Amino acid sequence: MDKTDNEQKAEMNEDNDVVEELLKFFLENRDLSLQFLDLLKSLKDSGAIEDIAALARAVMPSSSALVKEIGSSEEIISSISRFGNLVPSILYAASMENSSDTIKAILYNSDSILKSMVSGAKNPEQFSLFKLLALLKDKEFTKGLTAMVNLITALGKALAKVPGD
């Protein structure tokens, strides 16, 4: 055998080790694995997987030197590690029916929501006390205001639990 055959066998063994580790992880974490598979199925069914793949092809660097530089960057590796710690909480939130429905409602309407926010920021209205009182009679305004008050309250409770100063 020449050197390239030995290198190929070594690479195959490394690939097998990675597959074995993945299988072991999925078997040991069955519930998390099922949630992850449900998430992947949802992403596939919605067409998001194809969109993500197209985005990755569009923005991924083609230069191996750049990839090597990014891979050796301690800041990037640390960021990826922190993101990896977020994945279980994201999967948990996305797997809950109420959270999933809320996220979908916001995302499916994100274009109009963002346009409205930008428009408001670029063309601010003057609000008198009487106009604010009149807005409180508007059903859609009070729904949004109530949602924001509840969000701020829940956010305050959640942030108070964050360790540190």
Helix content: over 70%
Low-confidence stretches: none
| Radius of gyration computed on alpha carbons | 24 Å
Largest sheet: none
Count of beta strands: 0
The SS-based structural class is: mainly alpha
SSE order in H/E notation? HHHHHHHHH
Strand residues, percent: under 5%
Report how far the terminal alpha carbons are from each other. Answer: 62 Å
Mean pLDDT: 79
> How would you sum up the global shape?
elongated
What is the tally of helical segments? Answer: 9
Task: Give a verbal description of the structure.
84% of the residues lie in helices and 0% in strands. By secondary structure, the protein is mainly alpha-helical. The protein has a domain at 126-165. The model has no long low-confidence stretch (mean pLDDT 79).
Task: Please summarize what this structure is.
By secondary structure, the protein is mostly helical.
Name the features:
165 residues, mainly alpha, 84% helix, 9 helices
